[in-house]
Amino acid sequence: MSPAETQQPVPDDPTANLPLLELRDGLSEVVDENAALTDAIEAFRSGTGPVAVDAERASGYRYSHRAYLVQLRREGAGSALVDPIPFGDLSALGDAIVDAEWIIHAANQDLPCLAEIGMVPRAVFDTELAGRLLGYPKVGLASLVSEVLGFRMRKEHSAADWSTRPLPAPWLVYAQLDVEMLIELRDAIEAELRREGKWDWAQQEFAAILAAPPREPKPDPWRRTSGMHRVRNRRSLAVVRALWEARDQIASSADISPGRILPDAAIVEAAAAMPVDRDTLQRLTAFKGRGAHRHMRTWWEAIDHARKLPESQLPKQGPRYDGPPPARAWADRDPDAAARLSAARAAVSEIAEAHRLPTENLLAPDTIRRLAWAPPADASVEVVTTFLRDHAAREWQIGLTVEVLTDALGKTAPAEPLT
C-alpha cells in the first residue's frame, strides 16, 4: 500500500500537510505459534541487508521490562510481528539475523529486553543517537521520520499496555509502522553523517552501545521516590524505605507496576504525616483508594517497623555517591575546582555548539565534573587522555575536547580583593 495523503489537515499542526505513513504490505499476522515462527525465521534468514527491529514493553503497567511484542522488517522478508510470550526464547530468530546490522531507535531502551529473549546483535545502527549527532532538535522516531523522510506517523498507542492479549488491530498497525521506514531512515541519516564528517563518530558510538556492560542496579532505589524533597528527617526516610520495599515486593510478585499498587504520593504523605496507628493511616487522603486499601495491613506493618528502628539503623540523610559533591557547593568547598569546572563546561559547550551537538553527547557531564573536582596531578594532554578513556569517552570525543580540558585544569579562582 502506498502512503496516503491526509484527508483533513489541521491548520495549526506543522506536519498537517505531510503524507500519512501507511503500511505498504498490509498488516502482518502475529507470530504466536511454532510453525509461524519457523516460517519467520527462514524468511528473515533469507532476507538481505540490515534488519529494522523494535520491541514493545508494558511500562507503567507491569513490573518487569520484558518485551511483549517484537517487530522486524528486512528486504526480501517484509515485516513480522512476533509475540515472544508463547515462546519465552527467540534466540533462533536472533541467530537468523545475527550477521546483519540491526537498526533500532533508542537502542539502549530495547536491547536489554531483546537480550532477555535471546536476541543479541553484533552490529547496531541507532537512529535516535545518530539524530543527536546530527543536531536534530527532536529525535523521537516520529519527528525524525517527519524531518528526514517527510511522512507523518501515528503515535497514539505509544503508552498502551502491550501485555494485553489479544492485541487490538490498531495497536498492531502502530507497532508495525515503527519498523516500516527504519531502513530508509537509516540510509538517509548515514548519508547525512558522511556529508558532515560524523560517520566515524557514529560508528564509535554504536560500538560503544554494544560494548557497554549491563547496567548495575542503583544503590538505594527507594531514594528516587517522587516528592522526596518533602521528607525532612531520617525517621521519615526510614518510612519511605520501608513502604517502598514493601510495595516493590508486592509489585514484583504480581508483575504489576509499583505505582499501580501504591503511588509515590502516598508513600511521601505517610512519611510526612508519621501516623501513630493504622486508623490514622487509613484517614490519609492518598490511602483511601481501593489499591492502597487492599494492602493496608502491609503498609501499616512497614510504617510501624520503621517507627521502631533504633537510630543506628536509620538511613542517612543524603544518598550514597562515589563522585564529587553537587556543583552548587563547589564555590564554597573548593573555589579552584569551581573555576576548573566553569572553564571546562564553557569550553566543551563551545565545541558542541560549533559541531551542532548536544553537550552531553560530546562528553558526559559526570566525566567533566570528576575531572574538574579531582584532576590528575600531572594534567598533561596524555594524562587527561588516559583519564577520559578510563571513563568510557570515545576517541572522537577525546580528540575534540582533550586540549581544552587540559587547559581548563590550570584555572584557579580569582583572588579575593584586598580590603
UniProtKB/TrEMBL annotation:
Residues 310-332 are annotated as: Disordered. One of its GO terms (molecular function) is nucleic acid binding. Residues 233-313 form the HRDC domain. One of its GO terms (biological process) is nucleobase-containing compound metabolic process. InterPro entries: 3'-5'_exonuclease_dom, Exo_C, HRDC-like_sf, HRDC_dom, HRDC_dom_sf, RNase_D-like, RNaseH-like_sf, RNaseH_sf. It comes from the Bacteria. PROSITE patterns: HRDC. PANTHER family: RIBONUCLEASE D (PTHR47649:SF1). This is Ribonuclease D. It comes from Kribbella amoyensis. The lineage of its organism: Bacteria, Bacillati, Actinomycetota, Actinomycetes, Propionibacteriales.
